[in-house]
Amino acid sequence: MSHALQSTRTAPRSALDADAVRAAYRRWAGVYDAVFGGVSAFGRRRAAAAVNQLPGKRVLEVGVGTGLALLHYVSEKRITGIDLSEEMLARARERVAEDGLANVEALQEMDAEATCFADASFDIAVAMFVASVVPNPRRLLAEMRRVVRPGGHILLVNHFAAERGPRWWAERALAPASRALGWHPDFTMDALFAPGEPRTWQTEAVPPFGLFTLLKLGN
Ligand SMILES: C[S@@+](CC[C@H](N)C(=O)[O-])C[C@H]1O[C@@H](n2cnc3c(N)ncnc32)[C@H](O)[C@@H]1O
Predict the structure, then answer these.
(1) What's the CA gap between 82 and 62, in Å, rounded?
(2) DSSP letters of 78-97?
(3) 84-121 pLDDT, tens per residue?
């Protein structure tokens, strides 16, 4: 496995910029699996299962975090994982070593909005609970499209803000704490796509309570 450290910086500062992401996940890394591993497990399994069913072996997992999904890929899929947080990646590397995940080919510190991969390097790119964290979700999606070959696939599983009701209020109340939390509780699907962009992706509600959504896009 390559452990190359290829740090890049994101351009604009926003409520949750790259430094805030690194700081947040430096704090979360030690407890991330215990705090978030359970509630999001279904989404992770669903996304990995969808990846496993798609053609092609070369898979990029962006924002791989502590590597909670890595165990769920079939061994034929060759996985490259990237993340901004060295502390999260350290956990992922421990997991790969402990579980003997020989199909994980690289875990690299890298900005998912500006990777160093050549065009069309992968058959599939998947982002699990990352779109609501990155400073610029549209740039994330554009970069995933660039590094996936034409005809390949892009998958995202994420929490998207409610449009009404008690969850709407809770998510907007939490929004000012985005930097401390390390994600945007009020993240909407509109933040991913340009206005007027044809909505050609498939969506699937994911338990618990349809709290998460799996998006599948052809490239
Ligand atoms: C909520 S965690 C999700 C981790 C993992 N995908 C999972 O399912 O548990 C978000 C992850 O995205 C990473 N991240 C945020 N912005 C990033 C960026 N621009 N490039 C790469 N990783 C990023 C964070 O460091 C963190 O590990």
Answers:
(1) 5
(2) EEEEEES-HHHHHHHHHHHH
(3) 999 999 999 999 999 999 999 999 999 999 999 999 99
Q: Which residues of the chain have pLDDT under 70?
A: 1-15, 164, 166, 169, 178
Q: How far is the CA of 89 from the centre of ligand 1 (A)?
A: 10
What pTM, to 2 d.p., does this model score?
A: 0.88
Nearest atom of ligand 1 to the alpha carbon of 36: 9
Q: For the domain that residue 61 is a member of, what is the CATH number?
A: 3.40.50.150
Distance in Å, CA 164 to ligand 1 centroid: 27
Torsion region of 56: left, alpha or beta (phi above 0 gives left; psi -120 to 50 gives alpha): left
Pocket of ligand 1 from Cβ distances under 6 Å = 21, 25, 40, 44, 62-65, 68-69, 82-85, 88, 111-113, 128-130, 133-134, 183
Domains of the chain: total = 1
Q: In what order do the strands lie in the sheet with 104-109?
A: 104-109, 78-83, 58-62, 122-128, 148-159, 212-218, 202-206
For residue 193, the Cα-to-chain-centroid distance in whole angstroms is 16
Q: Is 153 helix (H, G, I), strand (E, B) or coil?
A: strand
Report helix angle 86-99 to 18-28, nearest 10.
50
Q: Is 144 a domain residue?
A: yes
Distance in angstroms (rounded) separating the CA atoms of residues 106 and 116: 13
The verdict on residue 54 lying in a domain is yes
Nearest CA residue ID for atom 5, ligand 1: 65
CA dist., res. 6 & res. 12, Å (int): 19
